[in-house]
Amino acid sequence: GTDLQPGENSLVVTVTAADGETTQVYTVTLNVALGNNTELAVFTVNGSDVADGDVVDLAPYTTEVEVVAEASDPDATVVIEGGTDLQPGENSLTVVVTAADGETTAEYNVTLNVALGNNTDLAVFTVNGSDVADGDSVDLEPGTSEVESHIVFSSSLTISSSNNNSQTVLTRLQVSTTSDLNSGIRIRSLSNNLNLSSVWS
Fold first, then answer.
1. Res. 178 pLDDT band, cuts 50 70 90
2. Burial of residue 76, with CB atoms counted within 10 A of its CB: 0-12 exposed, 13-18 middle, 19 or more buried
3. pLDDT reported for residue 154
4. Which of 95, 117, 93 is nearest to 40 (CA)?
5. Of the candidates 116, 115, 186, the residue with the CA atom closest to the CA atom of residue 150
6. Mean pLDDT value of segment 12-21
7. How far apart are CA 151 and CA 47, in angstroms?
8. Among 10, 35, 98, 198, which is least packed, fewest CB within 10 Å?
9. Residue 122: which of 136, 111, 108, 109 has the closest Cα?
């Protein structure tokens, strides 16, 4: 009758008669109901305590955080969703606790806010296949009606076309294409980088 655990526990009573030989065993099952406690004893992000509904501000280019979530009831289960593959802006972190009874659940939500970065470096910048840099002049053959520029960004960006009021938000940098010519912008993804092909006509 001591050290009972959730679920079934056996209580065994053995009676020995006065003759010292005859015995009778009595067994009773003690059924301790499974708990419905869904509280968290520990909930931290990068070592700092958080609670349901909190917003955690993170440095630019943060892609993951360390999340620790431990239930108050050791028989409860904890599932963590989020905290990795973070993108600029708001990201959701969800912790779901299922009580020992297997039915009662609780959800804890935290917003991970990754600050927008200020990195404007280009990994690759070419015009018609040749490397160029800011301020360069590119000589073109007479009658040239279009050029192809190839830009590879190592981080997130927002692309703005000089002849189009709309913006395509890809990541967290801001790059503007400007030209005296009308420009049409095609955006495609190559490998693990973001790429911009711009054709001017």
1. very low
2. buried
3. 59
4. 95
5. 186
6. 92
7. 39
8. 10
9. 136
